[in-house]
Amino acid sequence: MERRTIGAAALGVGAVGLGCMPMSWAYSTSRQRGDESLRAVHRALDLGSTLLDTADMYGPFTNELLLGRVLKERRSDAFVSTKVGLLVGEQHIVANGRPGYVRRACDASLRRLQTDVIDLYQLHRADPEVPVEETWGAMAELVRAGKVRALGLCAMAALGGRRSGTRLHDATIRQLQRVQQVFPVSAVEAELSVWSPEALRSLLPWCEARGIGFLAAMPLGNGFLTGTLTPGEGFEPDDMRARHPRFTAEMMASNQPIVAGLRRVAARHGAEVTPAQVALAWVLAQGRHVVPVPGAKRERWVTQNAGAERVALTEQDLAEVSGLPRAQGSWD
Fold first, then answer.
1. Could you list the active site residues?
2. What is the pLDDT of residues 69-120, one digit of tens each?
3. In contact, 32 and 59? CB cutoff 8 Å
4. How is 84-121 classified by DSSP, letter by letter?
5. d(CA 71, CA 201)
6. CB within 8 A of 330, min separation 6: which ones?
7. What sign for the dihedral angle of Cα 20, 285, 163, 137?
8. Distances (CA, A) of 15 to 104, 147, 169, 282, 305
9. For 263-283, what is the HEC assignment?
10. 81 contacts 120 by C-beta, under 8 angstroms
11. What are phi and psi of 114, to 5 degrees?
12. Distance, CA of 283 to CA of 231 (rounded, Å)
């Protein structure tokens, strides 16, 4: 697989990463299988999808434990990205950016991942009660201690909430400007997909101008852009899509023209090319510093996602995909 570089530290990763969250959290638990997920991670590494993206809150903790079982055998094959800053309660999620907590959380992640260094340590969310410079300074100490190689920041909206595009990213850029004064940012992780292209307006160019890598989260639109979801089929109560404004039966039906457009482009590239691969290829085409991180928990989808790197979209294809109808949500 093609290699791409993240940040000034020139950290090399496969062009398509693997989002590990669905293996343990936020999606239907009845379909989560530990052994199946382990095979998916091994398959990703075999194919060159070296960036494994996780977080201590996924599970919580179980996602890192699962990856640790693979890393114990194949640490040299993987680029490990995990996150700190969020705590999961019974019915809520809270931020914790206190320096002492950051140090303890890193040590705990290292133990669960069965490794002595984290390649990319990301601040999941800033704690409104703690100056972000203090949190970032504690993370920088971990780099100097040799426990972490590089730092990143997540710029994600609340799950299931309205994504306010420009306003969200303007605030993120101000935050990035603050932490850059403390220690260099190597990567920013934010949503970017055919149906959520807001990062193209300001955040992506800001990162590109500064040599900062961009990890495209949810590049398949939480599965919608794969074309495998049926409107009205519903989701299990613990699936975050059950509360997402774009995943009501009405909105899924309204957004089918987006999937139809991806299918048209895919058909021009051969019968084996899928809408999901076109969606990922579009993300890949947004810049050499962009690495899509599609979530998957089965070998089949990992293999398909990795194959997107070989789909060479033409200028006509890119224009057609960019011109697809705007995604609709229940707020519209």
1. 58
2. 999 999 999 999 999 999 988 778 999 999 999 999 999 999 999 999 999 9
3. no
4. ESEEE-SS-EEE---HHHHHHHHHHHHHHHT-S-EEEE
5. 37
6. 245, 246, 248, 250, 251
7. positive
8. 32, 25, 24, 13, 11
9. HHHHHHCCCCCCHHHHHHHHH
10. yes
11. 55, 50
12. 25
The token duo for 75 is 């640490």
Q: What is the DSSP letter of 193?
A: B
Which residue carries 């949500």 as its tokens?
329
Backbone angles phi, psi at 240, to 5 degrees: -60, -25
3-6 and 11-14 beta bridge pairing:
antiparallel
Rounded distance between C-alpha atoms, residue 297 and residue 315, angstroms: 32
Average pLDDT over residues 62-67: 97
Tally Cβ neighbours within 10 Å of residue 206. Answer: 18
pLDDT digits (tens, 9 = 90+) for 2-27: 999 988 777 899 999 999 999 986 66
State whether the Cα torsion 327-205-191-67 is positive or negative. positive
Pairing of the two strands 11-14 and 18-19: unpaired
Residue 158: what pLDDT?
Answer: 37
Q: Are 43 and 304 in contact (CB under 8 A)?
A: no
DSSP summary character for residue 247: -
Calculate the alpha carbon distances from 225 to 220, 271, 278, 279 in Å.
5, 17, 9, 7
Contact indicator for 59, 24 with CB cutoff of 8 Å: yes
Q: Which run of H or E residues covers position 229?
A: none
Task: Enter the tokens of residue 138.
Answer: 């504690």
Residue keyed to tokens 């970032």: 136
- pTM value surpassing 0.90: yes
Burial degree of 38 (CB within 10 A; 0-12, 13-18, 19+): middle
Kindly report the CA angle at 62 between 122 and 25, in degrees rounded to 5? Answer: 80
C-alpha–C-alpha distance, residues 51 and 17, integer Å = 5
Nearest to 138, CA basis, from 182, 184, 171: 182
- CA distance linking residue 34 with residue 58, whole number of Å: 14
